[in-house]
Amino acid sequence: MADPLVTIPTDDVELEGELVVPQDAEGLVVFAHGSGSSRKSPRNNYVAETLRERRLGTLLFDLLTEEEDQIRENRFDIPLLTDRLVAATEWVREREDAGDLNLGYFGASTGAAAALRAAARLDGDVDAVVSRGGRVDMASEVLPSVTAPSLFIVGGADTQVLELNREAFAKLQCEKDLSVVEGAGHLFEGPGELEEVAELAADWFEEHLA
């Protein structure tokens, strides 16, 4: 397999990433991590592994450079994170090994807001979105414009985020679903909770990307 480590040029910086495309891939999922996280997020990597077992390629990349991440405000600069996600998508589209694949976004926490904003901006070029514990309320004004089938996954014990997701869900006019993982908190740390997230996401992407 080719070296999965890649650099994605955008603005005046280069973002580090890891692109893995199975030989018989039927789609590609680009990950947008949450604030204070990175492409090395253990939760996102677990989900990515599950997706690759389902013949889906994955791109995990840093939305910010190490220097940018030191400035806390950058982690919540959703327009900046959206621009980075769009740039990574355009970079993928130019690659021979992934450019023709149907494309989805998996966004966690604040990354979910960037994923929904990018999906609205790239209307028609994004085929599915999955949000895990997403701050989807931070994309509220673009939600009616999202056409990509969207799945919100929220922990049942993550009450504040669940309420925000329900309000945002009502604004979506695309194919949509809201899955509540009973008893789970924001980080899905309980037994079997992250596995449930990964299976829900894989089912959604398999249905809409394959």
The residue-averaged pLDDT reads 96
Order of helices and strands: EEEHEHHHEHEEHEH
Query: What is the assigned CATH homologous superfamily?
Result: Alpha/Beta hydrolase fold, catalytic domain
| Classification by helices and strands | alpha/beta
Basic shape = globular
How many independent structural domains? 1
Description:
It is a single chain. By secondary structure, this protein is an alpha/beta fold. The chain has a single domain, classed as Alpha/Beta hydrolase fold, catalytic domain (Rossmann fold). Helix content is about 35%, strand content about 20%. It contains seven helices and eight strands, in the order E-E-E-H-E-H-H-H-E-H-E-E-H-E-H. Strands 1-2-4-3-5-6-7-8 form an eight-stranded mixed sheet, with helices on both faces. The chain is globular and about 40 Å long. The chain starts with a strand and ends with a helix. The model has no long low-confidence stretch (mean pLDDT about 95).
Brief summary:
The chain is α/β, with parallel strands linked by helices.
Question: What is the topological layout?
Answer:
Blueprint: E1 5-10, E2 13-20, E3 28-32, H1 42-53, E4 57-61, H2 66-69, H3 72-75, H4 78-93, E5 103-108, H5 110-121, E6 128-132, E7 150-155, H6 159-171, E8 176-181, H7 193-209
Parallel strand pairs: 3-4, 3-5, 5-6, 6-7, 7-8
Antiparallel strand pairs: 1-2, 2-4
Helix pairs in contact: 1-7, 4-5
